[in-house]
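To: structure desk
From: M.T.
Subject: fold request, one chain
Message: Could you run this one when you get a chance? Sequence is below, nothing fancy, just the single chain.
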Amino acid sequence: MAVLPDSRPDDDPQQRSASPCPPEVEVRRSARRRRTVSAYRDGNRIVVLVPASLTRAEEAEWVATMVARIERSEQRRRPSDDDLLGRARSLSDRYLGGLAVPESVRWVENQSSRWGSCTPGERTIRISTRLQQMPQWVVDYVIVHELAHLVEVHHNERFWAWVENYPQAERARGYLMGWSAARDEGDEID
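Reply: Done. C-alpha cells follow.
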C-alpha cells in the first residue's frame, strides 16, 4: 500500500520545542485514516497519525520519516547565533537609538530559571533555547530587555523606560509570566 504524507502543516511556531534530547513520539492509529500519514509537534512530543492498516514495520518506517521531517523543518526555522546578533542590532537601532551594541548574542541551553542574561562588561547576551518555541515578538522582547542592560545595568526607572520603548513589552511580559505560571516555574528575565 502506498501511503502519502498528509498536507497537515507541521510548522506551527507555537508548537516548536527546543529540547536537545530526542523527542517523545506518540503514534495514533486510525481505522478511518486510509492512505495518509501526518505528524505535528505537541509541546515536547511529536504525534504521528497513521492508518491502522499499516504493518508495524511500515509504521516504524513512517514514524522515522515524519519525525525527521519535523526536526528538519524546525531546524530551518531556528535562527543561528549570527541571526540573533543581527536581530539584536536591528532592535537596538529601532528601540534603543542604536546605543546598545552587543559583542555577541547566542542561544544557551543552561538557563533553567532565566529567559536571558547579559554581561554588560563583555557586552554579551545569552538567550535561553526555551524561547525558540515562542512567538518572535516574545523573543524580541527578551532581546530588548537584555540590550537595555547594555545602556542601563540595573533594573531601575531608566532601565524600564528603555525597555518600554518596545511596543509589545507589557504583552510579552504577560505571556512569559503566564507560560511560567502554567508550568509552575519561576522564570525571570535578567
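Reply (cont.): The beta strands are 4-5, 24-30, 36-42, 45-51, 104-108, 114-119, 124-128, 188-189. Let me know if you need anything else for the meeting.
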